[in-house]
Structure formats: C-alpha cells, structure tokens
Amino acid sequence: MSYLELRGVTKVYGDGSTLVHALSNIDLTVEAGSLVAVMGASGSGKSTLLTIAGSLEDPTSGEVYVGGRPLTSMSRNGKAQLRRQSIGYVFQDYNLLAGLSAVENVSLPLELDGVAARKAQKVAFEAIEDFGLGERATHYPDQLSGGERQRVAIARAVVGERQLLLADEPSGALDSTNAEAVMRLILAACHRGLAAVVVTHDAQLASWADRVVFLRDGRIVDQTLPAESPDAFLADLPQS
To answer: What is the secondary structure of 142-158 as a DSSP string?
Structure first.
C-alpha cells in the first residue's frame, strides 16, 4: 500500500508580482518498502517536496497523506506527534547534537516521545550495533568520521516504529565509499518495510532506487525505473 501520497500538491511563496511556484500540481506515491529517488537541478523544488511530505510545511493547495491520514486534518500537535513517531529525517549535515554521544543522539527521539531513558538507550544501542557502530556508541560526534556520523543519523531516523524516511542529500558530504554505504543502509531499512524518499544529485546513487522522479521548475517531468547504469540516468535527465 502507499504509505506516502501527494495529490495535486502546489506550493507558492510570496505574493503579488513576487510569486514563486516551488511546486506545481505534484502527484507522487511511495509504497511501504520502496525507495524513491528525487533528482533535479538546484531550485527545482526537491527540498520543498521533502518538507511538505514530512509535514514541516503546508502546501498552498493539494493534499498529503501519510499512512492513509490526510495532513490537513491534523492539528499542529498531531503533526508533531506524527513526526516523532513515524517519520525519520536524514540531512547532509547530519544534525547530530554535539553534546550527546552517538547512542544518546539515537535514543533522544524515543525519550522525547515518552519512552523511559533506560529502554530508549537499549533500543538505540541495538540500532547502533545494526549499523556497525557498537564500539563507537559512547563517542561524541566530533570523535566520529563523516561516514560514521551519517550512519548515526540514519540510525536515529529509523529507530523505533518509524515508517517513513526522508533524506535530503544524505551522501552529499561523503566520499564515494561512504556514500554507497549510506545508500545500502537506507535500502536495508526499506527492505524492513520503510517507505523512503531520497533527494540526490548523484545518478549512481539514484540507481539504487526502485523509482527515480525528475523535478524541473517545481514539476515532475519524468519518472523512471532503474536503468542498467548510472550513465543512463544522466542521459534521461531533462535538459533545461
């Protein structure tokens, strides 16, 4: 079933003569267990799509459904609870708290949602181990490499009962080896049943996805299944 669905979503910023259409009539579905990559030039609307899909912004028109529930029917507190319990975010700059260890960063969302600290840290440590960082669990972000910090960020995004993963250029600050490792972890999360949307500029990484969506000027201009090679994605990418 579709865990995330955008129906006719439009986002307009500004007013009068300064209107900017960040998104225009976007229709997109993401099934549970599937990975969708979003590609497009800077300013094409990729990040806006993620913030609206994750309830951080409201669309100007259209509707977003997460787990079958329309976001427009939710209160601000309801959306906050949805984000804490069901949606995980991964960012290019990791967004880890410097004063917390790796395991504390991962357990924090659980504790904020009312899970007892001891239980939250136990679950978090298991997630850290699953990501190959058991020996680094008590280290602080500045003691971890870029690849390790991103793995911690992904563990934090998928820990608990989250069912939707939204990643904005999660490999942008990593070398090719670590970037591939990050995509493997996101794909593994999808194999466990998560729905995932990953914004990326890297055609090779997009080739890991079940589907690739191309954005230009706030519109979906193409959708494609994985090709045989990353070069094929570059050839398919709409030219401006």
So the answer is: GGS-HHHHHHHHHHHHH
Contact residues for 76 (Cβ-Cβ < 8 A; gap 6+): none
C-beta separation of 167 from 198 below 8 A: yes
Amino acid at 188: A
For tokens 């008590």, name the residue.
Answer: 138
Residue 219 pairs with which residues in a beta bridge? 216
For residue 38 the two structure tokens come to 């979003």
Residue 24 phi/psi, 5-degree rounding, is -135, 110
The identity of residue 222, as a single letter, is: D
Rounded CA separation 152/157 (Å): 9
Exposed, middle or buried by CB within 10 Å (0-12, 13-18, 19+), for 74?
Answer: middle
Kindly state the tokens that stand for 140.
Answer: 């602080």
188: Cβ contacts below 8 Å, ≥ 6 apart: none
Summarised one tens digit per residue, pLDDT across range 148-186 is 999 999 999 999 888 999 999 988 888 888 888 888 889
| Pairing label, strands 87-91, 211-216 | unpaired
Residue numbers of the chain with a pLDDT score lower than 70:
225-240
- DSSP letter, residue 16: G
Closest to 101 (Cα-Cα) out of 70, 67, 134, 53: 134
